Amino acid sequence: MTPLITVKNLEVRAGRKSLLSIPHFDIQSGEVLGIMGPNGAGKSTFIKALSLLEKPTQGAIFFKGEDISNDLTLEMRRKFAVAMQQPLLLDTTVFQNVAIGLKLRNLPRTEVRQKVAYWLNKFQISHLAKKQAVHLSGGEAQRVNLARAMVLEPEVLFLDEPFSALDFPTKVQLLKDIKSIIEQTKTTTVFVSHDLMELKYLAGTLAILMDGELKQTGPTEEVLSSPNASASTFINDWKSLLN
Ligand SMILES: Nc1ncnc2c1ncn2[C@@H]1O[C@H](COP(=O)(O)OP(=O)(O)O)[C@@H](O)[C@H]1O
Ligand SMILES: [Mg+2]
């Protein structure tokens, strides 16, 4: 089967410094891929390149076998939704924040209302619909951010450390909800985190990124139980903490 996304000879450089170097990488349809690595490893750089937010220095990205590296059209970008650690919400109500993408797509008002109501309910924030975004707690704001991403029914959902700023109970509840939503919708998901607990819970496949290079990729359990020489320095630190 053709992978949903294929990356070939991807290079991101800042001046002469290589930030990311990925010779070949596939993401399968329906996969929940975790990307783990230390600070500064290039995780966000990878997400930005994959989601077409930033053009790589070199290399190609294929979507369903088609080279989309130079296709930075609205139509292509709309296949992807990105949620980051700090939700950048607009200074308006929760409803409007979730509705904005659909309004920009000129959907009829009744359809906008219906879809927004559906996703507010899914993320258990229906009661916040009329609340101003500035008054939300961190957990509520991240729920709005994720609802705003999912309402667009993306082909790929990119999550860049979306739970890192949340306190533990808030994080656990949101992890449970997002897991069930991803499973129900079968959304292909790329999930960046430096937290092994989050990754074990959510990601079926795990890629270890260090110094801009993918050191190991495979089923999450397998990578964690048998890290190779390159990945083990990082993974064993985590394991020693958890055991
Ligand atoms: N625009 C840039 N110019 C120069 N260096 C950058 C730029 N963006 C990121 N970097 C550097 O690239 C490396 C990877 O950054 P990033 O992808 O944000 O890492 P991560 O998300 O894994 O913490 C870091 O060393 C960072 O300082
Ligand atoms: Mg980052």
UniProtKB/TrEMBL annotation:
<keyword id="KW-0067">ATP-binding</keyword>
<dbReference type="InterPro" id="IPR003439">
    <property type="entry name" value="ABC_transporter-like_ATP-bd"/>
</dbReference>
<dbReference type="InterPro" id="IPR017871">
    <property type="entry name" value="ABC_transporter-like_CS"/>
</dbReference>
<dbReference type="Pfam" id="PF00005">
    <property type="entry name" value="ABC_tran"/>
</dbReference>
<keyword id="KW-0547">Nucleotide-binding</keyword>
<dbReference type="InterPro" id="IPR027417">
    <property type="entry name" value="P-loop_NTPase"/>
</dbReference>
<feature type="domain" description="ABC transporter">
    <location>
        <begin position="5"/>
        <end position="236"/>
    </location>
</feature>
<dbReference type="InterPro" id="IPR003593">
    <property type="entry name" value="AAA+_ATPase"/>
</dbReference>
<dbReference type="InterPro" id="IPR050093">
    <property type="entry name" value="ABC_SmlMolc_Importer"/>
</dbReference>
<keyword id="KW-0813">Transport</keyword>
<protein>
    <submittedName>
        <fullName>ABC transporter ATP-binding protein</fullName>
    </submittedName>
</protein>
<dbReference type="GO" id="GO:0016887">
    <property type="term" value="F:ATP hydrolysis activity"/>
</dbReference>
<dbReference type="GO" id="GO:0005524">
    <property type="term" value="F:ATP binding"/>
</dbReference>
